[in-house]
Amino acid sequence: MPRRPGRAAAKRAAAKLESTPRALEEIEDEPMPDIEGSDAEQQAEPEEQENEESGAEPEENQESDVPSVKSPSPPPVPVIRRRRLGRPPKNRPPDWDTLPLEPPQRDPNEPPRRRGRGGWKGRGGRKWGGHQPTQQTIDKEGNMMDIIDDEVALPEDPEGETKVDKSGHLQGGREYRCRTFTVAGRGDRLYMLSTEPARCVGFRDSYLFFTKHKRLYKIIVDDDEKRDMIERDIIPHSYKGRAIGIVTARSVFREFGALIIVGGKRIIDDYEVAKARAEGVVEGELADPNDKFVEGEEYNKNQYVAWHGASAVYHSGAPSVPMQNGKVDKQKRRVNITDVNWQLEHAREASRFNAEISAVRRLNLSGVYDVHTNMMQFPASMQPTHARFEQVADSAAPTSSVRFPPMDPKVPRNFKVVDTHMEIPPAGLSHAVYEQREVPDFLAPFQGLGAVSKEIFDELPDECKESFNKALDQENTWKAKWGNESVHGHRRQPIIDAAIVPYSRQQ
């Protein structure tokens, strides 16, 4: 007798024939197929045959009141978190910190990784310290010098060695303008914070200080030395995360000499005495005349300390690099105005401004090209304001003029000759007399000294009245030379010849 397929198999066949999607609740889990030849299949076949012969449904389709027993859940598998580069995720799982770490798997045959960015041995390594250079370039030609005892080994000056010892202690009662201190683990050698001597000699920061002076060697202190300097109040506690640079006091004195000494005098307090004398330095001259110090009183060394107000050097307007030979760049020079020098500085600025205006005016005398009219425009002060025309009766008569000598009578008879005279007003004459300004008609008579009333004139002293009358006569003489336009401007009524125009029509 042929074997009928089971109900589950029929459902699977019908599901394959359906073309429309079904809802999720209608989808049933497919049973796992049994392994061929297994004991479970052999036991299931007799039971299935008995159910088919009796005409009953299989047990899996029959409803039963007996609750089914669930299989026990498998034990949780421990999750291992892999170590990855970068910062941890923002939303961490609750057990993120308790998960074990799995080191990244590497192929043993793979070559070792290169050193990444961020310092020694990739990220998070040492930032400074460790390796100390043994040589340093001291000039532009690339000459190298050895570094011994934290300073560049330079030739010694016999006379300069009497002013400082090997540890940097000054001799002969001299005193540094900056603070000096010792560093833990470096003996009794004196050091300075690199920013303090830099400000003392005129630099704004220590970067330019070491860039311009190659013979100085910059040292970066490590964490232990920095901690010791904080405990001794050499640097504030806020500097614990910064890179602190120091320099030996002996090397600073050898480089700058009297400039780093309180009240230092050239040659007397310099280290390289032979070099200074060869340059023609005046012996006994103050190295820094602007330095404020009083003999017998304690010198203020905190004026170059950043946390004691030395940061004001950034707002002083002084150049970042001190000028050579004391020369000051006039274009970048800024003087602090005080109650002592304000009159002098005001006069200097006024003189400079007047000089600039005069230069511009001299340039305008040559004319300014106007792009709109294609003409050269000249100042109004160069243009005539009055004109008069005088007819010369006899051009052959002798004259004292060099520019207009006597002419042959034939020339003016056959040609029209015009002599143009340019005359400037005399000194002391008011501009209101000869300038043609646009004023209302009722103010026209008041242009000049003639507009002064008699009441005001009577109030003047006798010497002022005499000067006033002299100036008034000069003004009237100047005005009388020009007359009116009908006479001197040749703007009278035209002369009409009766032979051309009838007399009856002449008016």
Please give a structural write-up.
With 507 residues, the chain is mainly alpha-helical. Helices cover 24% and strands 6% of the residues. The protein has 13 helices and ten strands. It has helices spanning 7-17, 39-54, 195-200, 206-212, 223-231, 249-256, 273-278, 342-364, 410-414, 431-434, 454-458, 462-480, 485-488; strands at residues 81-82, 101-102, 135-137, 144-148, 151-152, 191-193, 219-220, 245-248, 368-370, 375-377. A three-stranded antiparallel β-sheet has the order 3-4-5, with no helix packed on it. It is elongated and about 145 Å long. The termini are far apart. 11% of the residues are buried.
List keywords for this structure.
about 500 residues; mainly alpha; 3-stranded antiparallel beta sheet; elongated
Please specify the SSE layout and strand pairing.
Elements: H1 7-17, H2 39-54, E1 81-82, E2 101-102, E3 135-137, E4 144-148, E5 151-152, E6 191-193, H3 195-200, H4 206-212, E7 219-220, H5 223-231, E8 245-248, H6 249-256, H7 273-278, H8 342-364, E9 368-370, E10 375-377, H9 410-414, H10 431-434, H11 454-458, H12 462-480, H13 485-488
Parallel strand pairs: 1-2
Antiparallel strand pairs: 3-4, 4-5, 6-8, 7-8, 9-10
